[in-house]
Task: structure prediction
Amino acid sequence: MAISFRPEPDFTHGTAPTTGILYCNLGTPDEPTAPAVRRYLAEFLSDPRVVEIPRALWLPLLHGVILPLRSGKSAAKYASIWTSDGSPLRVWTEKQAKLLQGKLGENGHRVMVRHAMRYGSPSIASQLDALKAEGATRILVLPAYPQYSGTTTASIVDAVTQWSSRIRHLPEIRFVNRYHNDEGYIAALARKLELFWRANGRPEQLVMSFHGVPERALHLGDPYHCECYKTARLVAGKLGLAQQDFTVSFQSRFGKAKWLEPYTDATLRTLGKKGARIDVICPGFTSDCLETLEEIAMEGRHTFLQAGGKEFRYIPCLNDDQGGVAALAGVAERHLAGWPTRETPDKEALERSRTLALARGASH
Result:
């Protein structure tokens, strides 16, 4: 069967090539209701990058058991963190994209920045269409995930590739795979903690909680586990923390398979039993979302205090932090290298200026 390519947007000859950046986050339901959450989870959990179980076994279980049972419970959790502006993840992601465009503009780059969600809206395909319609002939895909994983970063590549398979005139496309050890990103996280501690004092223990993935992924070659630990070590080093001053853990388990350990909930319970005073930060999340605001700041706090913990403080994600935006801009600039994104001087104006300068020199 012949492939049907999508119609190309109108093109004006003589138009200068332009560059776009697509800033991609995971996604969120459109509203905190069971039907909306079910649609979102169906798309998310149907991705073979996320759940590596044969489709013939997994999809009937997903649609027949998991979604009917989980959608309502998840909707209640989303409702607990929903704001008047909507989903926190969508609000922060959209704001980060706007701030990123502003920062790159300040640095002299003429680029268009749009945000997209891997699952939900606005979709990656719709935003690529929009960039192409606006004249983008070069597109940099920048994930909101500092650490690479096949479950997240590679899935974004899959979505872009799927879009590309239906496009006749493809733009040049580049991908950012990781920035887990980026100097600016590490400095922004350390600065966030330093400012908080300067105002509130240091805890007995800092917990750095990252999103989990099945342990099987580690043994099959996924670098995510190592990159999380690298981020944690660099942040701790920047702050001058000793090994015993911080703990790395992994949250958000799903299903009965073994996931990366130590688990965050078990870690919080253990620290609570010791009567500790702790701070928790989630360095793998660039913006606050369900996993940070509900799972950590609410459920995690309850687990810790119920176990006997003395003080639990959650430190928000970078969100619209200036250092975080500057770090994203730095990552983007390195990957934009070689693409003419800076304003090009008018050649005729430069020639007139040179001629005038020569004439003035000759008159003296």
Notes: The chain has 13 helices and eight strands. The radius of gyration is 23 Å.
